[in-house]
């Protein structure tokens, strides 16, 4: 039917990301030998850049887009392990935050957005391949779930220390409030997860100022203009114009998608 592919919604929604969400991509490189993999990317970016970002499948000009991406994140520097944060941010912005913000802008209901920055005693970074002697210094993909669900298959001996337990209590409270009231903070809560008696902050919807809740170990704070510069950069590129050409103005498929979609990613 004509409503089978919805492009906008008006339901309350809560969504977010970890500060170093796509750290598992870097972890995958580390498993294969970080210096060797990054040397290949550095030398062959015009070929491998479009592949690792799936641009061959979605962009009408994948090489040009990949070159702009490299310039934005690495300037004229070589791609080495010293650029670990830039590599992680590139993948996080492309695969997680940019699509998330695009979806938020198409939701006319109240949307509550968070950035999870707490790095506790337990993290999934090492399961993704990060060497034990390294740390992203922040949360990676699905680290927020550690504080919401008993992930026994990842952490069979999980036992929270006091700091992590307070984060877990906060997260569960926010999620239960949202499920119950459609609002994670129907009443003000503490701005310090380690001091729950200090009730001074409310989680405000995303709105026109792109507001979001930053969740840190010892502080909750409302921020605005979520990744404004990065979002502006990515939306200025022809990243998905080829993909969009497969659909008509009402969202119906015109051409079959590429049969090799996603299979070329060597990472």
From TrEMBL:
Signal peptide (UniProt feature, chain positions): none
Record carries keyword Glycoprotein: yes
Domain of life where this protein originates: Eukaryota
Keywords: Glycoprotein
Family matches, as Gene3D superfamilies: alpha/beta hydrolase
Residue span, Carboxylesterase type B domain: 9-234
PANTHER family: CARBOXYLESTERASE
Protein name: Carboxylesterase type B domain-containing protein
